[in-house]
Design brief:
four-stranded mixed sheet, alpha/beta, globular, 10 strands
């Protein structure tokens, strides 16, 4: 019986070996043939070892440049970089989080957004949209456009806040601070936006969103300086708005 198991294992190993190829060669060949290749990154920019909130980071490189290094393609072969961000901000585990709401707002965001870690099942910390973090992410990833998710989660609020700066020791920072102490201890400077207080989960046309919801999306575009071309208003694939 042991011999059979060993022979079966060796056969599987040979089959697996035959399937292993040079990924860089395969991908570059596909690009040379005019085929479309889609890379999907894991985790968020602030978990990046170089550009994130050290030591609350991962060992890999979640930024867009990590795709080039990991797959083996040159940066000039990347034609579009889509950033994915929620209409509010969340974080799993420890680490600085200036816009975190340890109150009913945070609880509502967590409940409506079903904010549980996909792998660990841990509850995500929730807060208002942090424009400085997203603008920082746009810069280090060279984002061409943004996919804004969970806009529907904000439909319950009469007023919505967005962090547009930080305050620390009498100084105002309107860009993401390089000093981790500042980011860890800073207080957010919020601007308040009108909410829409209506169900948008069935809307598939941007122009049919409530005016206040349209204004919120346009406001975020202005603050992060990247166009928001796709919006989700629910968990289903059909609950997606694609802007021209």
């Amino acid at each position: 019986r042991a011999k059979d198991i060993i022979e079966e294992y060796l056969g599987y190993a040979q089959e697996l070996k035959a399937r292993i190829s040079d990924t860089s060669l395969l991908v570059n060949k596909a690009l040379d043939e005019g085929k479309k290749v889609f890379f999907e990154g894991a985790q968020g920019t602030l978990l990046d070892l170089d550009h994130g909130t050290y030591p609350y980071v991962t060992s890999s490189s979640p930024v867009a440049g990590g795709a080039c290094a990991g797959v083996g393609v040159g940066p000039m072969r990347i034609e579009r970089v889509i950033g994915v961000t929620k209409a509010y901000t969340t974080r799993v585990g420890e680490g600085p989080f200036p816009t975190e709401q340890k109150n009913d707002v945070g609880k509502t965001l967590a409940e409506r957004g079903k904010e549980l870690g996909t792998t660990t099942g841990r509850k995500r910390r929730c807060g208002w949209f942090d424009a400085l973090v997203v603008k920082h992410s746009a810069r280090v990833n060279s984002l061409s456009d943004i996919f804004l998710t969970k806009l529907d989660v904000l439909s319950t609020f009469e007023k919505i806040k967005v962090a547009v700066a930080y305050k620390f020791e009498g100084r105002v920072y309107d860009n993401f601070p390089s000093n981790q102490t500042v980011f860890n201890k800073a207080k957010p400077v919020h601007e308040e936006i009108e909410g829409w207080k209506s169900d948008i989960s069935e809307v598939t046309d941007f122009n049919k969103l409530p005016k206040a919801a349209q204004n919120y999306v346009k406001y975020l575009e202005e603050k992060v300086e990247v166009p928001i071309r796709t919006i989700s208003v629910g968990p289903s694939r059909k609950q997606t708005i694609i802007r021209s």
